[in-house]
Design goal:
The structure is a single chain. The chain is of the alpha+beta class and about 300 residues long. The chain has one domain (about 1-275): Phosphatase 2c, domain 1 (4-Layer Sandwich). Helix content is about 45%, strand content about 20%. The chain has helices spanning about 10-15, 50-70, 70-110, 115, 120-125, 210-215, 220-230, 235-255, 270-275, 275-300, and strands at about 1-10, 25-30, 35-40, 135-145, 145-150, 155-160, 165, 195-200, 205-210, 260-265. The strands form two sheets. The protein has a five-stranded antiparallel beta sheet with strand order 1-10-9-6-7. Strands 2-3-4-5-8 form a five-stranded antiparallel beta sheet, covered by helices on one side. A hairpin with a 4-residue loop joins strand 6 and strand 7 (about 165). Helix 2 (about 50-70) runs antiparallel to helix 3 (about 70-110) and helix 7 (about 220-230) packs antiparallel against helix 10 (about 275-300). The longest helix has about 35 residues, at about 70-110. It is globular and about 60 Å long. The termini are far apart.
Length: about 300
């Protein structure tokens, strides 16, 4: 049985400047698969509708996964042997679904004077309409017997498999040319996606997050350890889903000051089986953290 949660919280800098939250997140679970998706709308002024763009990206991703799983058993039979081609088609379909939403929104909501007057007429003419809605996207999917993920732009995907070690199976490697942001709004967006596919392993939990979470940590090790800690607390999912929102808000206000999104999917049965192992790993991690801190303090005293 799959479970999950998703939260998007506004950054302190956006509250101060009067901006809306430009992140969006969601998750979906059923008996065949679970999916977590987050999107982070771009902050530059030409992306002035990016908060809609991030919503449309998450919706487009969920719609696409749903469509590919229309016949779950058929998909499960064909995907493993053909995952490269199918993932390529998924990327194209997500972009197509996103563009459809963008065009429908534009048709019903033409650009207002308050939006265009921030630019000269010449500047505004040079901005492609899709750019108004520019956004990143990170998608994590856990199926029966395999896991996969898709990403365009920054953000992170973290997975914990049966050994309980948090890993990033899809290293962020922006394939955009210099001075170009990898974005859903680019004309060649489908070629800018990164992806991964893993089979033969069970995932305890998978997480998709915007870069506001990653940058709230001083280093990658702390970021990964955070995912281990929260995974060890997922056994009471309803209660924890609310407490993690408070933690994200705190990180947003006292750390990065950026919007933060975190979406999680997890295998509730596997969580139960691995509960003691996860708690032991957290205890060991905290002990090593104390040792590292003591070593640093000792080194400072000796300088």
């Amino acid at each position: 049985m799959f479970g999950g949660f998703s939260h998007s919280v506004i950054g302190a800098s956006h509250e101060t400047s009067g901006l809306v939250c430009q992140d969006h997140s969601a998750y979906e679970v059923n008996e065949y698969y679970s999916v977590a998706a987050i999107a982070d709308g771009h902050g530059s002024k030409k992306y002035f509708r990016s908060h809609f763009g991030s919503q449309f990206a998450v919706e487009a991703a969920l719609e696409t996964i749903r469509a590919f799983y229309k016949d779950p058993e058929q998909f499960e039979q064909t995907f493993p042997a053909n995952h490269k081609l199918i993932l390529k088609n998924m990327k194209k379909q997500i972009i197509a679904n996103w563009n459809t939403r963008v065009q429908e929104h534009l048709a019903g909501n033409p650009v207002r004077l308050a939006e265009s007057q921030k630019f000269t007429k010449e500047e505004f003419k040079e901005i492609p309409q899709e750019s108004y809605y520019g956004t990143t996207l990170v998608v994590a999917v856990c199926g029966r017997g395999f896991q996969f993920g898709l990403q365009i732009g920054d953000g992170s995907l973290v997975a914990l498999f049966e050994d309980g070690e948090p890993v990033m199976p899809m290293v962020y490697d922006e394939s955009a040319p210099a001075n170009m942001t990898a974005s859903m709004c680019n004309s060649n967006a489908a070629s800018m996606f990164n992806s991964f596919y893993i089979e033969g392993k069970k995932a305890i939990a998978m997480y998709a997050s915007s870069d506001g979470l990653y940058t709230s940590f001083s280093n990658e090790d702390d970021f990964l350890e955070y995912h281990l800690i929260i995974t060890s607390q997922l056994d009471n999912l309803d209660v924890f889903a609310q407490s993690v929102k408070k933690n994200l808000t705190k990180r947003s206000h006292f750390g990065t000051e950026d919007d933060i999104s975190l979406a999680c999917i997890c295998d509730m049965e596997l969580l139960g089986e691995k509960a003691e192992m996860l708690k032991a790993k957290v205890a060991d991690m905290k002990a090593h953290a104390k040792e590292r801190k003591a070593a640093r303090l000792a080194a400072l005293k000796n300088t």
